[in-house]
Each structure stands twice: as C-alpha cells, then as structure tokens.
Amino acid sequence: MDLPVTLVVAVVTIVMVIALAAAAQRLLGVRFGAVRTFLAALLAFSLAGPLTTPILSPFPQMDGTRDVGLGPLWVLILVVMCIVLIPMVILVVAEALVPTGSIPGPLELVRSLRGRLSRARRYSEITRIAVRHGLGPYLRGRGDRPEDHTGAVRLARSLRLALDDGGVTFVKLGQVLSTRRDLLPPEFIEELGRLQDQVAAEPWELVEPVLRAELGGPVEEVFAAFDRTPLAAASIAQAYTARLRTGEDVVVKVRRPGIGRTVARDLDIVRRLAVTLESRTRWGRGLGVRDLAEGFAVAIREELDFRVEAANMAAVAASDGGGVTYPTPVGALCTERVLVMQRLVGKPVTAATPEQGPRLARDLLDCLLRQILVEGVFHADPHPGNLMLLDDGTLGLLDFGSVGRLDASARAALQRFLLAMNRQDPLAVTDALLEVVPRPEDIDEPALERALGQFMAKHLGPGLDSVRMFTDLFKIVSSYGLSIPPEVAAVFRALATLEGTLVRLSPGFDLMSEARAFAGRYLSEQFDGGNLKEAAAQELAALLPMLRRLPRRVERIASAAEHGRLGLNVRLLADERDRGFLTGLLHQVLLTVLGATAGLMAVILLGVDGGPVASEELGMTLFQLIGYNLLVISAVLVLRVLILIFRRPRDTPAKRTSS
Fold first, then answer.
1. Across the strands, what pairs with 251?
2. Is rRNA-binding given among the entry's keywords (predicted)?
3. Eight-class DSSP state of 234
4. I want to staple 339 with a disulfide (CB 3.0 to 4.6 A). Which of 182, 253, 304, 391 is the partner?
C-alpha cells in the first residue's frame, strides 16, 4: 500500500473513531475526558471487525444482479447500533471501576512529575527528622499517649525540635498550634511557644531583583534613601528602613525569594499528613487535624500575600486606636511580595519600666476589646513580639498578617457572652455561649451550666486571679465537644494571647476589673442620648413601612376568616435546586421504565415463532429484527441510567463541619 492510500486510510479511521466517540458520549448524555473517550472509541473500533464479521458474512455480494430487499439494510443499521453500543459499555464499565478524576490524566501526570519527585524527597527528609526526634511511631499511628507530666513534656520537646528542623512552614504551624489552648495540653502550648522564626538574612543580591520587579525600578529611583542592611529577618520576610521622596521614614518588608514554592510544597505535605493522621489515629480524629491543616494553609497563604496585610492594616487603622498607634501602609508601593509602611520608632515593649506597665496593659486591653466588640476588625496575634514601646511612651502594634473579622451578629453574641460573664450568671453565660458556637444536638446543658458556674467562681470572684482564665474556658469548650467557628476561635485565641502579654507587661494586672471598666465605658457610649436617639430613629424608619401596611393586612385576614375564604398559598419546589433534583430523578425513573419496557418487548418478540421474513440469508424474521433493535435501545437506556448513578456521588459535594 503506497503512502497516499495509507494516509487516506489513517484519516478515515481517525474520523470514524472520533465520530464513534461523539456518538457514544452523546447517547450517554455525560461528558468524559477526551483521552478516556478516544481510547474507548478506538478499542470499540478495533473490536468492531471481529464482532461484525460473523453477522455480515452470510450476506451475498452486492453485485446488482439480484434484489436483496430491505432486510440487509435493517440488519446493517442494527450492526452500526451495536458498534456504537461497544464504546458506551466500555465507558460505563470504566466509570464504575476507575471513576473520572480518581487518577490524573496523562498530561497532568507529566506536568506534575517534577513536583511529585520534589515532594517525595521532602517526605523523606521530614520522615528522617521525625524519626530522629522519636516521633516515628506517632506518624504511623502507633504512638502511645503520655501518661504523666514528664512524658508529655518530653514528647512536646521532641515535637518542637522536629518542627524547628522542618523549616519555615512547620515553624509557623508550631506557632499557630501554640495558641490553640482549646486543643493541646499545657505542656505542648508552653513548649511550642518557644519556637522562633528568626533566621539569617538573605543577601542583598537575591533581594534586590524582587524589589526591582515589584516596584518597577531600582530602589534608588523609588526611594530617596534605602538602607541595604536588614532591620530584621524572619522566616518569610525581612525588613529594611528607607525614606520616601516626600521625606517620610518607612519600613520596606520584602518576601524571601523562592519562599512561595517552598511553602506551597510544604503545605501540600502538611495537608496529606493531616489526612493520614486523621484516618489512622484516634487523637488525629479527635483534634480534627484535617480542618486544622486547611485553616492553617489559608492563614499562611494570606500571610505570604502582603496585599492582604496592607488591607488589614488599613482596616484596623480606620478604627479608634486609643492609646495604641498603628503603622499606615503606603498603598501605591504595596504589592504581593513587598509591603511599604510607616516606620514606628521605639524599642521592644519588654523594655517598659514597672511604672509604665499598668498604663500600657490598660491601653492594649482597651484597644483590643474595642476592635473585637465595636469595630469587628481586630489584631489576632497580640504577643509581645508584635508590640513596640514608642518614643512618646505609647504602644505601637505591628504585623497585621493575622487579622480577624466579625460580623454584627457575631459581635452582638460575644457582647452578650462577656456581659453575662461580668454578671456571673451561669444560665445567661450558657445561653450566650451556645449562640456564639453552633449548638450540638446531644449537649448536656445542665452540666455545661454547672461547669461554667464553677469556672466563674474560680476566676471572677472578688480578689481572685484571672491568669489562665481563657485557657480554662478553652478546656470547657473542648470537653463538651463544642465546635468553635473559625472567626470566634480567632477571638478566643487573641484573648488568650493577650492574657499572657498583659501579665508580662504588668504582673498582677487585674484583667477582669479593667474589662469591667471598659464595659462600663462602652455601655455609657451606647446609651448616650445621641446614640439612643439615632438608634431609635433607625429602628423606627425600618418599621414604618411594615406598620403602615399592618392594619390593611389584618383587616383582609379577618374578613377572609369571617367569610370562610381564609387559605394558605404554598409554593412547592420553589428552590431551583429542588426542582433540578426532582427533574433529574424523574428522568432516571422514566429512562429505567422505558429501558425495562423495551427489553421486555424485545424478549417477547425474539421468542415469537413465524412472522414475515426480513432476511432469507440470515433466516431472520421481522419480529426478530425489531426485537434485536429494541434490545439495543434497551441497552442504551440502561447504560444512560447507570452512568448517571456512577457519576452522582461526585456531583453532590460532601458537607463538612468546620471546627
């Protein structure tokens, strides 16, 4: 066979395979991957010859000397339908055995090969680190829970050392876990709190290209002055001092080169490790490590994007800081990898004198409570490292990579909770807490009320110490299986961190007394004559339209009831999703009934003896020919129902509860 004929045959074959694939996918009514559909059609095309040869061999050669009638034509149509049926069967069986999306396609597999190899090397490195620090059994789900304080301290130290050796992502993970007093024992909280992310600074030769690319030119053109010696260096970024051309002193925060790829790879590993631990260990399921990993991944991705931090700074700076100063971002110079902000001049807050401590602690508490309860945008990590004692004697609040947000309903629920705690009313505290967190179906409310009453008696009585108050509150929340929403968990985490910071600023600081003073000032502001008048005017403006319509509606209802015409209009299936679900279910039932009916009629017709002859060569009657066609139609309808059944579990996303 010469080359032109070979090319023509190849083109015709490819066109026929594509047509066969399109017909099979169209009849099934479901979209498949191009590779899967083409392979199914190619396999069906290769099987078509051996399967149809025994059927077509008895037919005479079409030489035009004799009239063969329409029987062979109908049989040929039946053969074509059978050929189309082959890729449909292959696709349905493949969907049942290897569901779509369960394995990557060839192109995706080739594209991710390098990442898989890199991840495998990182897996090996992390495993060696874990084994070196004695954590190997815990990764395999065989580690025993320490029975005494000494064992817990030893395990916590091993975990801290392993996380420290793991690099930036794992150090950040340990720092986040060190604030989750609701999940981890005190030994782990104390040990993980020692993690530090201070590392050696990157050389200027590697940082300068990042600045040039993000700022659109050399630093000499953008800034009037720029100190190339880093002011500070952390695991994700390092900071430099500079002066704008307008004369303002600023701090330039630059993300480390290549840190994005490293964090993305490690986050993928953290997610996979969390899935493994949750599936293999009881403590992993108890802690919900998969949800923890997802929340951590979201937080660290935001921390990598300095545009998010700039927006957070602007949102917090818009609120009243009281005695706390926030740096202002220079929006025109803030990008994903560079953050330029006002420079606050001062020294570490730990350098404050004992005389300054109480005032600074009071200002910080007032600032954070106002952010949480009034503004709804708050700094979620107020530890001493994020605070400065400015030259004018006030506090400066830094690092807005972690900021929480509360809507009006969440703020109102938290206000009721804190006010009920101030009144030391266990019943009101329990009701308010169950408004803040989702209410479980099987919670023992009397026992929770007693636990909260004991908690308040321990911490809120006159002259009692409020240290570790939020830690004990976390224990109660955890022991009763309450699922804290992420935004509320951020509030409790910030308050727990604030508790330690206040004690460090001013040992013996009376947290509850100062919180009550803030509540008094806040309530006086809320019940100020002007505020009350404005609130009443707003409520009245919202109620007036309804009040104007209310008499007419009451009169119509009363008249209809008096004359026996009162009725209810209910719209069934008003939701589009409900209508779609019911329509799809009816379609499946209809296809099943039609397929079963066609199959039953085919069996009956194939069992009938006699009848008009459709093909003398095959000895096939008309009833048999119709029966075979109905059998093929029945198979098509049944395959269409089966493919919808196999696809349904992935079309309906699983609902998960965040904790």
1. 241, 341
2. no
3. B
4. 253
Q: Which of 200, 202, 242, 206 is nearest to 222 (CA)?
A: 242
Distances (CA, A) of 259 to 113, 229, 301, 336, 454: 21, 20, 11, 13, 48
Residue 163: CB atoms within 10 A of its CB come to 23
pLDDT digit string (tens) for 145-166? 666 667 778 888 888 888 888 7
Q: Give Cα separations from 16 to 11, 29, 439 (angstroms).
A: 9, 20, 60
CA angle 410, 415, 420 (to 5 degrees): 130
Residue 404 sits at φ, ψ, to 5 deg, of: -100, 155
Going by the DSSP 8-state scheme, the letter that residue 345 receives in this structure is: P
Tokens of 595: 């397929």
pLDDT at residue 652, rounded to an integer: 40
Helix/strand/coil (H, E, C) string of 582-607? HHHHHHHHHHHHHHHHHHHHHHHHHC
Sign of torsion, CA 288 293 295 299?
positive
- In this structure, what token pair is assigned to residue 158? 């091993």
DSSP 96-146: HHS-TTSS--HHHHHHTHHHHHHHHHHHHHHHHHHHHTT-HHHHTT-PPPP
d(C-alpha 637, C-alpha 592), whole Å: 7
Q: Return the amino acid letter for 421.
A: M
CB 180 within 8 A of CB 188: no
In the β-sheet with 395-397, what is the strand arrangement from edge to edge?
324-325, 395-397, 387-390, 346-348
pLDDT-derived band at 532 (thresholds 50, 70, 90) equals low
User: Chain-wide mean pLDDT for the chain?
Assistant: 78
List, as one string, the DSSP characters of 374-422: IISEEES---GGGEEEETTS-EEE---SSEEE--HHHHHHHHHHHHHHH
The count of other CB atoms within 10 Å of the CB of residue 412 is: 14
Q: H/E element holding 231?
A: none
DSSP single-letter state for residue 329: B
Whether residue 617 has pLDDT greater than 70? no
CA angle centred on 299, ends 293 and 300, rounded to 5°: 90
| Residue-level pLDDT at 277 | 77
**Positive or negative, the Cα torsion across 591, 651, 285, 143?**
positive
CA atoms within 13 A on the CB side of 449: 10
> How far, in Å, are 44, 47, 85, 352, 483 from residue 89 at the CA level?
9, 13, 6, 77, 46
The pLDDT of residue 651 is 41
- Contact residues for 545 (Cβ-Cβ < 8 A; gap 6+): none
pLDDT at 1 exceeding the cut of 50: yes
